[in-house]
């Protein structure tokens, strides 16, 4: 995977990083000053760690892949919050997406197609049953998806099944650059034992997207969505170099196998940026 130009799948386990206040500040100091308030606004230490590591991953990946000096990297964000690079000429459509939940923070990048990443932590609901918990999200699921979830077996299996669908929906929306208002109920996923995953949008199957699910450990899942740049929302489309992708390029991207994430430590990230 690492050999393929512009394609990266990196992940960090933040539970392994226990920085002192000085070590945390030293890592944050590697980022441009305008990125730091977004980290400091979090009250909980774990949330601050996730926000910091997410940004370290972005700058380190861009520096690593595109060989841009750190002080010259200009990461912008669309009104919906999707990060993008200004003036990236190395690849037709270099784009990346981050996600964090629970123990993990991750990033995925692609040179041509849109990429979305979502990480979920399969945590047991507190103070309510699994059925009560997933019922809160029923309006975001189609009848087909709901039936697949509630018939999955034990409450643990039902919860995991729910998170698989949720993870895929989020990865797709993030790849497009859509905001929180996007109607997740418009998306319906079909699969063969969670391989050969396909999507129906507003009831119509599309061949312009590919999806993959990964089990990071017993409690965490990750999903990757890859698709045609013409499906990006308008604000994000403006940030892309081109929305033209040949059938051959699209087919090649969607047919190429997805490999496991590369695990990085925060120390490795910071060293790569110094």
From TrEMBL:
Alphabetical keyword list: Transferase
Enzyme class of the recorded protein, top EC level: transferase
E.C. no: 2.7.8.7
Highest taxon of source: Eukaryota
Gene Ontology MF annotations: holo-[acyl-carrier-protein] synthase activity
Record InterPro entries: 4-PPantetheinyl_Trfase_dom, 4-PPantetheinyl_Trfase_dom_sf, AASDHPPT_N, P-Pant_transferase_sf
Positions of the 4'-phosphopantetheinyl transferase domain: 115-217
Residue stretches making up the 4'-phosphopantetheinyl transferase N-terminal domain: 16-111
Pfam families: AASDHPPT_N, ACPS
Signal peptide coordinates: none
PANTHER family: L-AMINOADIPATE-SEMIALDEHYDE DEHYDROGENASE-PHOSPHOPANTETHEINYL TRANSFERASE, PHOSPHOPANTETHEINE TRANSFERASE
Protein name: holo-[acyl-carrier-protein] synthase
Annotated source species: Urochloa decumbens
